[in-house]
Amino acid sequence: MSSRVAVVTDSTASLPSRLADRFDIITVPMQLKIGSELIEEAYVPTDRLLRAMEAQIPITTQPPAPDAFFWAYQDAWAKGAETIVSVHVTPKLSPATDAAKQAAAKSRVPVFIVDSHSSGMTLGFAALAAARIVQSGGNVQNARSVAEQRGRDASVLIYVDTLHYLRQAGRVSAAAKVFGDALSVKPLLTVVDGEVEPFDKVVGRDRALAKLVDKAVALAYGRNVDLAVEHFAAEKEGHELLQMLQKRIPHARDVVLTQVSAAIGANVGPGALAVTVSPF
């Protein structure tokens, strides 16, 4: 690590490894409890998670243990970091930030915790922005400020085949719970102040995704943006959605297609798609 500032995040950022490696971002894995077994999500293949979901085996997500963050901070210090910017999933979706704070209190170097106000690539782009600042010679205050700003300014638009998994995980707001379960009605969701909220419902998958694209285009209009499409067990559909977006948002700088972390996948269910628009 050449920089004196390290950037740490958690795996709900869903960052492709090529980007995390390129920008020296340290990623601490969340945990999944599948039945009675507690496993770091890095060791949960998608097919195993899908089989567990199909078999209706209870699945819960848990934050990294405080020691996991502590050793990530120790590793950064050992490689020369004098300060750390630690960017995380909003506390409203996971207690991961609490675990990070516990570890920060024991860290050998100062750790600045940043709430991304969301998860997924909203968090991913916030961590990337901080790492870019660091690699260009910026200080910890610059990196922290940019990460906070990117988290606040980003928008995420979510399509799910069913609200079943989000309801089961207790991740939807009271407003979203009123959506019916008719197979033809597809809820479109967003994250507001850390809460999963509805913004529309559309009959039919194709219409729902067209609406998602229209909304993303409106959010990106006239702005410099990074763009991501996230999916869970729907890579082909994610690629098609990305192509639709690139035709209509050709000015996007970073364009990312990624599968969400297993912790997010367990909450949204197979077939879920999301678009993150992150202005800079």
From TrEMBL:
Q: State a single Pfam family of this protein.
A: DegV
Question: Any transmembrane segments, and where?
Answer: none
Q: Which InterPro entries match?
A: DegV (IPR003797), DegV_C (IPR043168), DegV_domain_contain (IPR050270)
State the Gene3D superfamilies in the record.
Answer: 3.30.1180.10, 3.40.50.10170
Where does the source fall among the domains of life? Answer: Bacteria
Keywords from the named record: Lipid-binding
Write down the PANTHER family for this protein, in alphabetical order: DEGV DOMAIN-CONTAINING PROTEIN DR_1986-RELATED (PTHR33434), FATTY ACID-BINDING PROTEIN TM_1468 (PTHR33434:SF2)
Protein name according to UniProt: EDD domain protein, DegV family
Organism expressing this protein natively: Lentzea cavernae
